[in-house]
Design goal:
This protein is mainly α and about 350 residues long. Helix content is about 75%, strand content about 0%. About 50% of the residues are buried.
Length: about 350
Amino acid sequence: MTSAAGPDEDSDRRNVSDAAGVVVLGACAAWSLISAAVHGGRPEGVLLAILAVAAGYAAGRMSGALLSVAAPCAGALAGVGLTVGVPHLSPGPQIVDPLGHAGATAAVLTLSAGAACSAAWGTAVPALRLGLRVLAAGIAVTAAVLGSTTGFVACSAVLLCSLAAGHLRRRGVGIAGLALAAASVTGLTWAVAASAVADGLAAWLEAQLTPHRVELWRDALDMAGREPALGVGPGRFGELSATAGATLPSDGKPHSAPLQQAAEQGVVGVLLLAAAFCWMLFALWRTARPTPVALTAGTALTALAAIAAVGNALSFTMVSVGAGLLAGLATARPIAGDSAQREIAARARGDRSAPDA
């Protein structure tokens, strides 16, 4: 759909965000190869994740343009089906609490809830909108039934924030708030790893996260301190971590995406991971879709970033594909055949399609 600025400006905004995505993802791939070449690492996992995000984003843009409501609804149902039908999402053995499995379950269900809520804002039919929100609530209940407390909290937050997004007219404020929330969780993770948190809070957080996970984080931070520029090389954390080596068998992951990047790819790797997340928020800010759609997708992606900061969610291809798919769906421009109807519906709701300054 077009905004008041006209189709040409919409195309320019879309081209800018797409070009930024190509640059960021290309830089992520190139840096993983450089870091691997210096230290003999294995960049295949990073390259696969980048390819999964790009493929998901492209699929989301195409399907969202053709079926702006049905496509995210189908994505939400597919996410739930995968989670329920594939109970053992973790590629490695579990350590006390299933860190990888719990993170992947929470991530997929959170993205599914985000897709359902985005679809709800994309339709002008009240009964269908209510049904899609009931679906999102059902996804949150599914997370609770599966024992994923994190997933239940994240899905509930996505649903509540989506409802609140309908009353927010300046999407820039919402996008900035989401970026701040992701940065806060990452900063807290870093502080815990560096033992820079007050004793009482540190003890509580360690009890929730498990001492084993915190020790993995500290190993990652120590590696980052020894090799701040290039890191120790992609895929080498498991062989260099004393904590991971003492646990047999181990999945070789620190269970924190920012700390894994810091350990294996150095400061540049962390900055590129942050750039990838910021690119998605930037694309949502620039999209011509209604503000509630953009903010709902942004909330789900921010929740995913928080889950990935304290877990192993991004090690799962389905999570990377899902993140790209949701971003693509929320930034897709519906085909001209139904754009007029959607513009009328958006104006009736008082949504702003264009980003604010």
